[in-house]
Amino acid sequence: MDAKPIRDIAEALIRALGYLDDERVRAVFLVGSSASGAADEYSDVDVMVAVSEIVADDERLQRLRAAGCRNIMLAIAGLDNPALPVQSQVIDKFVFRDVWFDVSYHLPDQLEFCFDYATLLDRDNLTPQLCAPDHTYGEEALKARAQADLRLLHARIHRYEKYARREEWVGLDLAAIKNLVVDLLMVLNDQPNYNRHFSHMSRLLRALPVKPENFERDFLDILRLDDRETWQRKLEKMHRLQDALTALSEARWGPISMFDDESA
Q1: Helix (H, G, I), strand (E, B) or coil at 56
Q2: CATH number of the domain at 3-130, out of 3.40.50.300, 3.90.1150.10, 3.30.460.10, 1.10.760.10?
Q3: Digits of tens for pLDDT over the chain (264 positions)?
Q4: How many other CB atoms are found less than 10 A from the CB of residue 263?
């Protein structure tokens, strides 16, 4: 689906929900791959709604039903969800005109982020908040960020191993490890202001010139292999990846202290 029909359907949704006449709705933005033109047949349509106050669940459900939406799931994610590109009060997922939508609701002070977007409605000139200036990092700041990532990665791998040895499979979560590895790689490639919620992250990672040998294969194995059957193999790959990332960091910035009780 190309960008124009996606925008047309998103605008039709906003009209059907009555948001053009709702004074609580201060702005509406089409975001992500739908706005950039990079959407494919697997993409959802992502819409951000800035509101002066959060619309209650029962009212949103009533409006979605009246608009002809189906497969409605309210509040699938909310405040402080680390998987989201911006701080969100609530996110609803549903089908409108045979297209999957993710609609997130935000207070105006939650909008500062860098993301592909197209403005559908803006009563208060909130659009300038959608792309904050790139922060400039010196080498010391980049080294400090790499050290922080490596320390957290070490702690997360230790946590994974602890739960795996206890066979507490429900406690295993690789999202934090994935995010730390990606962040460290982007820092090593001088792209510290990247958007970690880029729709085609795998394509971006493949294109990076600075990364461990066999990175894509090992990283995918860590993320995809079954925990119950292959956790020991996954741990070996995690430790090898951690060692390789540490070596790449120290090759650039010199020794990086992992533990605070190590001598200077």
Answers
A1: coil
A2: 3.30.460.10
A3: 555 688 899 999 999 999 999 999 999 999 877 777 777 777 788 898 999 988 888 999 999 999 999 999 998 765 554 444 455 578 899 999 999 999 988 888 777 666 778 899 999 998 888 776 677 899 999 999 999 999 999 999 999 999 999 999 988 989 889 989 999 999 999 998 876 656 677 888 999 999 999 999 999 999 999 999 999 999 999 999 999 999 999 999 999 999 998 765
A4: 4
DSSP letter for each residue of 215-234 = HHHHHHHHHHS-HHHHHHHH
Domain ranges of the chain: 3-130, 139-253
Tokens of 78: 């909310």
CA proximity to 74, closest of 96, 103, 47, 49: 103
186 closest CA partner among 210, 203, 202: 210
